[in-house]
Amino acid sequence: MTDSDDSKQSPMQDTTTSTTDAPHVASVLRLGAGMQHYAVILTVIVGVVAIALGFVLGGVPGGIGAVVGTVIAGGLGWLSTFVMIKTARATPAGVMVGAMTAFAAKIVFLLVFLLVFHRTTLFDNRAFAYALFAVTAAWIVGEVVGFVRTRIPAVDL
Fold it and tell me: Does the keyword Membrane apply (predicted)?
């Protein structure tokens, strides 16, 4: 890799492997980077549409709700691939523990957020919910597309 290749890479995507890494490390790093790449692209597209629809259909409160839903869904989706990339050098069981911890953190965050803001008038709750759902679905579809397009076998024989 040249210096110019390094500048194009996100600082969160450590896709370099050393000669002492376990065999699964390169696969996990490539999968994480590929999944994150496609998920971000699809999430930005759906997020922009959700925010525009929020403003058009719900005015300022609808737009703010859509922005909040988009940011939360995108951030929580990003957390999964970030943890996957950062735990890649752990054992496969360690990667799974990291993934399950990230999943639990997402659930707790959403629970606390919804409990705190369930009767808010700061933003439109429907626009928030629709944007959260749409962006979450977009992130998941993007991860699946990224997983498939990296063409790494899920099982090493």
Answer: yes
